[in-house]
TrEMBL record:
One of its GO terms (cellular component) is mitochondrion. It catalyses: Inactivates bleomycin B2 (a cytotoxic glycometallopeptide) by hydrolysis of a carboxyamide bond of beta-aminoalanine, but also shows general aminopeptidase activity. The specificity varies somewhat with source, but amino acid arylamides of Met, Leu and Ala are preferred. This is Cysteine proteinase 1, mitochondrial. Has aminopeptidase activity, shortening substrate peptides sequentially by 1 amino acid. Has bleomycin hydrolase activity, which can protect the cell from the toxic effects of bleomycin. Has homocysteine-thiolactonase activity, protecting the cell against homocysteine toxicity. The normal physiological role of the enzyme is unknown, but it is not essential for the viability of yeast cells. Has aminopeptidase activity, shortening substrate peptides sequentially by 1 amino acid. Has bleomycin hydrolase activity, which can protect the cell from the toxic effects of bleomycin. Has homocysteine-thiolactonase activity, protecting the cell against homocysteine toxicity. Acts as a repressor in the GAL4 regulatory system, but this does not require either the peptidase or nucleic acid-binding activities. The keyword Hydrolase applies. Residues 1-21 have a biased composition (Polar residues). Belongs to the peptidase C1 family.
Length: 506
């Protein structure tokens, strides 16, 4: 395992074929091919001189397609069939067995369900943390409160957005950064460093002490109302900033104090809505009492604060605050530290940081953590080549190319560049299946979509799918390669723009 600082090597077939053309003869052949292609393009005339779609083109396409029996059969079947169900590969379903020879030695229950919300990152986090809680307290059925983290995260995101409104008040509303901030101001999603911010500041509590509400599980109505108010609040602060800075009587510090006083007044409205809809959460230093049964039926009682519960039970050998994100982003240089401009939740908190490295390092991290008894938080693009019912994530799952005589040639880097893919979902890896050489060939994934999804809530992810659609693995520094820890601790970060796909919130 190592972190190379050279340019990334793309793992796609297209990229591999281009990298192999290194000899002078191969390069000369490539040039000849390009010349031949260009000459063909020059001689061939388009059917539409002005670029519009012409019926001559359609007639030509139809003539070619209708002459092929396989494509005619596809038309017969697919016009009344679900394309994914009809084209799901039987071979892939057979090969992708939900069997794993290396798993965590402790199984948690129940399978969680984020329902109609974007809180996967909070569910993945609490699903990781509850391993320690359940082991220490001898529990067989337990959940941490995802809603507790959700409340404090969303309240802080509202404050973060209004602070940005103050800082950027001199920028026009159509400035790209201002516009981007106002677009996704308080989404349900987040990143690892953002949840560490919440855990370190607010702790965590058992779900019984702050249970789900209707709109923690169905978040869009709440989000819609809060976004409306916060955009209005941002305009109020921008107008006030303009008035204050036009006055020569106030210093910059005095103007900032006045703006923050007004912001706190506006934030009261956000808190009023949230506390009514989600319930008033415990304060992090509020004394709490939790009664529970262990797996032997013995009653127990715990007393303490949310911060104390976090430090006592949720943190074991490896603390969330001592863990960091490895990412695989083939667009950017490996062996470097990256962050995303203006991405965060707690103002002045821990920044979002990624160490970019080869995909093999992410896989090695997963195997090492599973062998060490540690569940793995990871981020991926779950909607690509996956089936919720079967619980399969496999690049060979659908027979699109064979059916339509097409080639899907985008590399991982291409997908990121063209907005085809990004981190959309966070889950937990709890097992791997290793071949005789020790290489992982598939992964056991604990999702947060309830027991009806996949194999009683669990998915199987192939190694090929990992290559193409896994972007992030969180690893404790104690288990990470030293050279990658060194990159992380260097603080020498490269800043990606706010709209970069690495800024997507799982």
């Amino acid at each position: 395992m190592g972190a190379s600082s050279s340019k990334p090597a793309d793992s796609s077939p297209v990229a591999q074929s281009s990298h192999r053309a290194t000899s002078s003869d191969e390069k000369r052949a490539m040039v000849d091919d390009i010349v031949e292609t260009m000459s063909t393009l020059t001689l061939r005339q388009p059917k539409s001189a002005n670029g519009s779609l012409s019926f001559d083109s359609i007639d030509s396409w139809e003539s070619e397609v209708s002459s092929q029996p396989k494509l005619q059969l596809a038309r017969t079947i697919l016009n009344h069939s679900n394309i994914r169900e009809a084209l799901m590969s039987r071979e892939a379903k057979i090969a992708d067995a939900h069997v794993f020879n290396t798993e965590l030695d402790f199984k948690t229950d129940p399978i969680t369900n984020q329902k109609s919300s974007g809180r996967c990152w909070l569910f993945a986090t609490t699903n990781v943390l509850r391993y320690n809680v359940m082991k220490k307290l001898n529990l067989d059925d337990f959940q941490l409160s995802q809603s507790y983290l959700f409340f404090w995260d969303k309240l802080n995101k509202a404050n973060y957005y209004l602070e940005q409104a103050i800082q950027l008040a001199d920028k026009p509303l159509d400035d790209r950064v201002v516009y981007e901030l106002s677009s996704g101001l308080i989404s349900d999603g987040g990143q690892w460093d953002m949840v560490v911010n919440i855990l370190e500041n607010y702790g965590v509590v058992p779900q019984a002490l702050y249970p789900e509400s209707l709109h923690s599980s169905l978040s869009s109505p709440l989000n819609s109302l809060l976004k409306t108010k916060l955009r209005e609040h941002a305009l109020v602060l921008r107008d006030l900033s303009s008035s204050l800075r036009a006055s020569s009587l106030l210093s910059e510090d005095a103007a900032l104090r006045a703006l923050r006083t007004k912001k706190e007044e506006l934030m009261k409205e956000v808190y009023t809505v949230m506390s009514a809809v989600l319930g008033v959460p415990p304060k992090p230093d509020e004394k709490l009492v939790w009664d529970y049964y262990d797996k032997d039926g013995k009653a127990g009682t715990w007393e303490g604060t949310a911060r104390e519960f976090y430090k006592t039970f949720a943190v074991d050998k490896y603390s969330p605050s001592d863990s960091f994100s490895l990412i695989n982003d083939p667009r950017n240089e490996y062996g470097k530290l990256y962050t995303v401009d203006k991405l965060g939740n707690i103002w002045g908190g821990r920044p979002v940081l990624y160490v970019n490295t080869q995909i093999e390092n992410l896989k090695a991290a997963v195997v090492k953590m599973i062998k060490a008894g540690q569940p793995v938080f990871f981020g991926c693009d779950v909607g690509q080549f996956s089936d919720k019912t079967a619980g399969i994530m496999d690049t060979a799952l659908y027979e699109y190319e064979t059916t339509f005589d097409i080639s899907l040639g985008l590399s991982k880097a291409d997908r990121l560049r063209t907005n085809e893919s990004s981190m959309t979902h966070a889950m937990v890896i709890s097992g791997v299946h290793l071949d005789p050489s020790g290489k992982a060939i598939r992964y056991k994934v604990e999702n947060s979509w309830g027991e009806d999804a996949g194999n009683k809530g669990y998915f199987v992810m192939t190694d090929a799918w990992f290559n193409e659609f896994v972007y992030q693995v969180v690893i404790p520094k104690a288990l990470a390669p030293k050279e990658l820890v060194k990159v992380y601790e260097s603080g020498d970060k490269h800043v990606l723009p706010l709209w970069d796909p690495m800024g997507s919130l799982a």
